Amino acid sequence: MSDAEAKIDLRDKNVPWYDPKLKKLGPSGRELLENYSKIPPAEVEDHVYKMRDEAWDVFPYPCIGEFRFLDLAISLSPDYPAVLQRLKSGNENFLDLGCCFGQELRKVAHDGAVQENLYGSDLRAEFFEMGYRLFLDRDTLKSKFIEADIFDADSALAELDGKTDIVYAGSFLHLFDYEGQIEVCKRLVKLLREKKDSMILGRQVGNIDAGEYVQATNEGGIMYKHNGESFRKMWDRVGEETGTKWRVDYDFAQFEWLSKEERDKAEPGIGMLRFSVFRE
Ligand SMILES: C[S@@+](CC[C@H](N)C(=O)[O-])C[C@H]1O[C@@H](n2cnc3c(N)ncnc32)[C@H](O)[C@@H]1O
């Protein structure tokens, strides 16, 4: 076991991806906690620290250690207005895949989506409990959470096969190597409704120089970091192997939350790939 793996096992906080201090709580995260969860503004930060540390003990992902679970991303997509319109209609289903706290699901619920049509899914059901406690909505949220391993074709997620219109996959595909990502995408093809414009949107860590990188927090220790073109090629292959066609829109940007100093120290070429993949 490597030193990093041992620290992960022990939930050690002395790792570069555990920020002792919240640098800045993004306005969308704060808005959600104050207006959806009705937490008094002066109590928001203490609540966030407490819940972050509890989630760290479930699994110490960088998105938890760096508080990125409150840096809401779905509404930054250029496709968000159309997605929201579709989810307000009451005719379409939404799945937040690898939802962790389910923050993006809460964002669309808060923005007016029909809650009964929203699903969250994760390998670790402990995160669903954390989500209710973070957002204080156990008795009000009408959405459903499904415990499932995305690689298990017989999991409870099968109830959504062919019935899902929109999938959000935030910081999810990058948990796997290239072949793992292909397998997940094929599973998504099965989950999505066989209809033009059923779609997947999301974001994940990428690199201008696409390829496999060592990442201790990933199962298997490898993260395939895409650039836009490699991501598009992956979907071409998924299409060929499933007899389907997909259009990929993307943008790639440097991590906007890093200071200039942190950016200078970061891995060369690293950035965030944001994508929307539409069935044709
Ligand atoms: C890095 S977090 C991303 C959380 C959230 N989607 C976001 O955008 O911040 C990845 C999540 O995927 C879940 N996960 C990891 N492997 C999985 C698998 N095989 N099947 C389903 N969920 C998985 C983890 O438990 C974790 O909650």
Short description:
Residues 95-194 form the Methyltransferase domain. This protein has helices spanning 3-9, 27-36, 44-58, 62-65, 80-88, 103-110, 126-135, 178-191, 228-242, 260-265, and strands at residues 94-97, 118-122, 144-147, 166-170, 199-207, 211-214, 222-225, 246-253, 270-279. It is globular, with a radius of gyration of 18 Å.
Can you name the CATH architecture? 3-Layer(aba) Sandwich
How many separate domains make up the residues? 1
Compressed to H and E, one letter per element, the order equals: HHHHHEHEHEEHEEEHEHE
What is the total tally of β strands? Answer: 9
**Unreliable runs:** none
Helix/sheet category: alpha/beta
Largest sheet: 7 strands, mixed
Bound compounds, each kind once, are:
S-adenosylmethionine
Distance between the termini: 45 Å
Beta percentage is 15-25%
**Whole-angstrom Rg:** 18 Å
Task: Tell me the CATH superfamily.
Answer: Vaccinia Virus protein VP39
Average residue pLDDT? 94
Shape: globular
Give your account of this protein's structure.
This protein has one domain: Rossmann fold (3-Layer(aba) Sandwich). It has ten helices and nine strands. The longest helix has 15 residues, at 44-58. α7 (126-135) links the parallel β2 and β3 (144-147). With 280 residues, it is an alpha/beta fold. Bound molecules: S-adenosylmethionine.
Layout of helices and strands:
Blueprint: H1 3-9, H2 27-36, H3 44-58, H4 62-65, H5 80-88, E1 94-97, H6 103-110, E2 118-122, H7 126-135, E3 144-147, E4 166-170, H8 178-191, E5 199-207, E6 211-214, E7 222-225, H9 228-242, E8 246-253, H10 260-265, E9 270-279
Parallel strand pairs: 1-2, 1-4, 2-3, 4-5
Antiparallel strand pairs: 5-9, 6-7, 8-9
Helix pairs in contact: 3-7, 8-9
Organism: Melanomma pulvis-pyrius CBS 109.77
Domain Methyltransferase: 95-194
Pathway: Secondary metabolite biosynthesis
